[in-house]
Amino acid sequence: MINKEKFSTRMLKRFYGVQGVLDEYRRNEIYKIGNTAFIAMFYYSLISNFLVVLILSLDEYKHLESILFWYIGANFIFVVFGISGYIIFATKSRHLVENEVKDIAYQKKRLINISIKQGFTFGVLTFILNGIMSPHLSELTSWHTVRFYIIAGAFFGLAMYFFQRMNLKKIKE
């Protein structure tokens, strides 16, 4: 009987980039990183919401759209660069994303196949979703758009290969 992973375990491994078995040490370190990121986001949300309400009340709601635009931009920058950057840095510094393998040549071939699938899936899904959202589905019929998404999928697959390749580590026997 195959021991299937729980959905929550698969999501943790996918979100934090952990490959292989998620043992107790890795799980506890991931929980610590996630808790620290949540605390930072919580305090940032409290402080930034207070500041926006204060600025809006002092401004007497004259520049509401521009203040909210800058607030949304600041939140986006904080989450993408602050929180995500912290998570990437912490998982790499604690060696949680390293994939220790015995046969590195086989793993490189396996990563090439995985990266091709990821690039193809990315290209096809972005082509379809952007085509559906375009007016009158015009992007689904343009050959220029098809070429663009093929190139975008190839670059995405290449980037994923190099990212996953950096995390391979050969075990010394």
Automatic annotation (TrEMBL):
<keyword id="KW-0812">Transmembrane</keyword>
<keyword id="KW-0472">Membrane</keyword>
<feature type="transmembrane region" description="Helical">
    <location>
        <begin position="145"/>
        <end position="163"/>
    </location>
</feature>
<feature type="transmembrane region" description="Helical">
    <location>
        <begin position="68"/>
        <end position="90"/>
    </location>
</feature>
<feature type="transmembrane region" description="Helical">
    <location>
        <begin position="36"/>
        <end position="56"/>
    </location>
</feature>
<protein>
    <recommendedName>
        <fullName>DUF3278 domain-containing protein</fullName>
    </recommendedName>
</protein>
<dbReference type="InterPro" id="IPR021697">
    <property type="entry name" value="DUF3278"/>
</dbReference>
<dbReference type="Pfam" id="PF11683">
    <property type="entry name" value="DUF3278"/>
</dbReference>
<keyword id="KW-1133">Transmembrane helix</keyword>
<feature type="transmembrane region" description="Helical">
    <location>
        <begin position="111"/>
        <end position="133"/>
    </location>
</feature>
